[in-house]
Amino acid sequence: CEDIKKILKHLQEQKDSQCLHVEEYQNLVKDLRMELEVVSEQKKNIMKDMMKLELDLHRLREETSAHIERKDKDIAILQCRLQELQL
């Protein structure tokens, strides 16, 4: 009878210990899920920012190209005037 009580006590201690481990693991899983949510939100925001930056880059390239075209035309006009003045 005493041996059975010892065994039962030991089993109860093991059960209590395992319950603590289960609770710790559940808390870890909960923390990881929350961290995953945060990281997912950060990724979403980074992707939005990248899309905005790509649009800005595209716009700047178009503006630069148009600016270069205008300057090339201005140079051509000035070269024509210079040739006229040299005649």
TrEMBL record:
Chain coiled-coil ranges: 22-63
Superkingdom as given in the UniProt entry: Eukaryota
Annotated keywords: Coiled coil
Protein name: Polyamine-modulated factor 1-binding protein 1 isoform b
Protein species of origin: Macaca mulatta (Rhesus macaque)
Gene: PMFBP1
